[in-house]
Design brief:
Blueprint (H helix, E strand, L loop, with lengths): L1 E6 L5 H10 L3 E6 L2 E6 L1 H10 L5 E10 L3 H10 L11 E8 L7 H20 L4 E2 L6 E7 L4 E7 L21 H10 L8 E3 L6 H10 L20 H13 L8 E5 L2 H14 L6 E4 L17 E5 L12 H15 L3 E7 L2 H5 L5 E9 L2 E9 L7
Parallel strand pairs: 5-6, 5-7, 9-10, 9-12, 10-11, 12-13
Antiparallel strand pairs: 1-3, 1-4, 2-3, 4-8, 7-8, 13-15, 14-15
Helix pairs in contact: 2-7, 3-4, 5-6, 6-8
The structure holds S-adenosylmethionine.
The site of S-adenosylmethionine has 22 residues, from helix 6.
Length: 382
């Protein structure tokens, strides 16, 4: 069994615990923006391919406490790097430090690189190179406040939010993992009609379509572990095939719309790259006049998730009036649905004028946002 540290966004830890447990992770434990567990090579492959709310799957190869640079260098050099990197391979190191004593992450990364290079040179007379864009091995060094050092292999490489389906975006695209996390927090499993009426380049719709289709989020990209010397092509191919076999036709309608025609075309490109465009309707529409494309009863319900402008990157000119319009349209034309709005403008959210049944604080990049739920039934206007 190996020790995994799977990173995520703030607020998604509990959901990631559920996902990791469902994948068979052992001794699962959440901390801030990370979930620890034990697992094997199958877990490594499935976690990267299937986890919707993970950013990186790190695998610990060393954990020790240090008092000075020499101890850090010695500890890093003591780890046997030969199983993970060939002498003519490339490596890249990222470092995060919270230590008062070791403050300079760039310097620590260089020290780490020296330790590895010196180990290879002493054994073989040759050394691996450094290459950020095209590394065979991505490493992660974390030093905490107590000077505990955690050394990990980054089995994902580029963050798992880079699903590979989004090439061009609109003005203020959401991080794909945040979009997936919002849908999970809203309890979406594909079993009710879904709408994003301000879909932009289609991130939320793409994540919803993949959830509804039981499609693994990582099917359209590669991962760092595929270049490791222990890569098991047969195991990987059978895990990928299982994920392909699990894909189903989404059982309920999925709809995205936006006021901007160009943006709807971007969403179409996004959905096309997921392979799920035939199962999604995308239209150009002003939400002001939008009616629910699939009428639902209060009993069966439907889900609306939207990420309207905050008057930061995207401007409306009258943000309070804009959010009031959202509330009025939801109340009038979307009865039976649950609507979730993510916004960084808490004053504007007050103008929605509907009773908030849940409010979840989250971060959209550097912006503090609220993810709010409104249940739309007759008389739901405050
Ligand atoms: C923050 S962006 C959404 C970004 C999207 N979640 C993504 O990841 O690409 C807000 C979107 O709302 C759209 N929008 C603004 N006013 C609208 C309206 N009245 N009706 C429908 N869409 C509107 C904008 O065109 C923009 O694409």
């Amino acid at each position: 069994m190996r020790i995994f540290a799977t990173t995520t966004l703030a607020g998604l830890e509990d959901h990631l615990v559920q996902e990791i447990t469902a994948l068979g992770g052992q001794r699962v434990e959440a901390s801030r923006r990370v979930v620890y567990c034990e697992g094997d090579k199958t877990f490594r492959y499935r976690a990267n391919l299937e986890l919707r709310t993970a950013i990186r799957v790190l695998e610990e190869v060393g954990h020790f406490r240090v008092r000075n640079e020499q101890e850090l260098y010695n500890g890093l050099k003591k780890i046997d790097w030969a199983p993970w990197l060939k002498v003519d391979g490339n490596l890249w190191i990222d470092c995060v430090t919270q230590s008062e004593r070791f403050r300079n992450g760039v310097y620590l990364s260089q020290l780490f690189k020296d330790a590895i290079v010196d180990q290879f040179r002493e054994k073989t007379g040759e050394r691996p190179s450094v290459d950020k864009e095209n590394a065979d091995l991505y490493l992660h060094l974390h030093v905490d406040r107590e000077n505990y050092v955690s050394v990990s292999l980054n089995s994902s490489g580029a963050g798992l939010h880079r699903r590979g389906y989004r090439k061009r975006t609109g003005g203020a695209p959401l991080n794909e993992v945040l979009a997936a996390g919002m849908l999970c927090l809203a309890g979406y499993d594909g079993e009710v009609p879904f709408v994003d009426p301000m879909c932009g380049s289609g991130t939320i719709v793409a994540e919803a379509a993949m959830i509804a289709a039981h499609q693994a989020p990582g099917l359209h990209r590669d991962f760092a572990f595929q270049r490791w010397p222990d890569f098991d092509a047969g195991l990987w191919s059978s895990i990928r095939q299982d994920a392909l076999n699990a894909i189903r036709r989404p059982p309920h309608p999925i709809h995205g719309s936006d006021i901007d025609e160009l943006t709807v075309n971007l969403a179409r490109l996004t959905l096309d790259r997921t392979g799920l465009l035939p199962h999604v309707q995308l239209t150009e529409a002003d939400f002001k006049h939008a009616v629910a494309p699939t009428p639902v009863s209060e009993e069966n319900g439907g889900l609306v998730v939207m990420n309207p402008p905050y008057e930061m990157r995207l401007q409306t000119g009258d943000i309070e009036g804009f959010y009031e319009m959202i509330g009025d349209t939801l109340k009038t034309n979307w009865q039976g649905y649950s609507a979730w709005i993510i916004s960084g403008n808490s004053d504007a959210l007050k103008s929605v004028g509907l009773k908030t049944s849940k409010r979840i604080p989250m971060m959209n990049g550097p912006i503090e946002v609220r993810f709010c739920r409104y249940d739309l039934y007759k008389g739901s206007k405050e």
